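Mods, move this if it's the wrong board.
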Amino acid sequence: MVLSNLKGIAEGNLNAAVVDCCIGIPVYFTDLQRRAVLDAATIAGLQPLRLFHETTATALAYGIYKTDLPENEQLNVAFVDVGHASMQVSIVGYKKGQLKMLSHAYDRSLGGRDFDEALFKHFAAKFKEEYKIDVYQNARACIRLRVACEKLKKVLSANPEAPLNIECLMDEKDVRGFIKRDEFEQISAPVLERVKGPLEKALAEAGLTTENVHFVEVVGSGSRVPAIIKIITEFFGKEPRRTMNASECVARGCALQCAILSPTFKVREFQVNDGFPFSIALSWKADAQSNEAQQTIVFPKGNAIPSIKALTFYRANTFAVDVLNVDMNDDQIPPKNSTYTIGPFQSSKGEKAKLKLKVRLNIHGIVSVESATMLEEEEMEVPVSATNEAQKDATKMDTDDAPNDTASGTDVNLQESKGATDTAEGAENGAPASEEKSVPMDTDVKVEPSKKES
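Not the wrong board. Structure tokens:
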């Protein structure tokens, strides 16, 4: 419904059909949530060119118009986005014509609504004591008090004190309250203590110190709370700046990314090097008789998006491969993303088959096993014409004396592509020689549902 409504608004303003789009998502979205956004966009009649992290969209909107970016030395900028329900922090390195995401950090349950809740609990207890009314027993009274507390928070952001007046809140009683900003910060202390966590984590993962961060930008509606600005200032040792529209920067960044990906618009050349916020591993059982699982990290945290990796397996029967999230400190992220069944297959020689799996991290941040190929060696007799015995020995095929790979104890060999970008061409390094025959195979996928978020 939301995407359909937005599509209608855009078509009304442009007087043209809207199909291609770029959708901003929080950096902490799971694999299942990303797939759900793509499905919702398809149902709404949209074709997403990219699911864009909100932190990256903000960084793009900030950097693409900068004409004074350095060519050699990197300019490091920290972005702190405090929204209504979550807080996201990113540190970005800028050079002329490009940006690179150095780190991501977040707190998915820290935002402006937590300050509203602190005020609500404060006045609910106060009114129960003074007016002998319990707003928790009346749903309508709860809603009216929450709305009044949200307005009160906004007033306190610009004034040192503010009144609260509600007519006929409950049992036909008018209520009045008053609070100072210092008292507000005192009752919000448990919330404010959590602000430093994402800041410290982002700085540590980027491998920087506060002195290496040249500028700090704050965005998001929740960042207007003075206590948050004070904490950010003390942490970085510099005053945060507000050079961007706090509420529109993500939408602007997504529009710019959509224009970059679209062949219709001509945009200033600007390279976006985004990083994946989680570590992804593949897990499999060593053999059919053993229940012991083995795993290897395919895409480490911060891996470039998009990316392709190739893995080589030696197997005799059909087997399953799980896509896992590893090194997770977030309880709301499921450990397993999906399961792929590789097979059936059969080697013509009756030995273990050599299989090459291609794993893709696509532009949306979704991991999948794209293909599985069985490689078979064929011995071929090649005519040789030589003038002497030395030349004949030099042209002898290497496969005659090559050791049998399947006889070795290695069950899996990870073949990573050359270069940091892990392009499809680079992932093909180590492809079978001319004497190997490739047999394409099908893979069955099963996506695991995530746990219900609280």
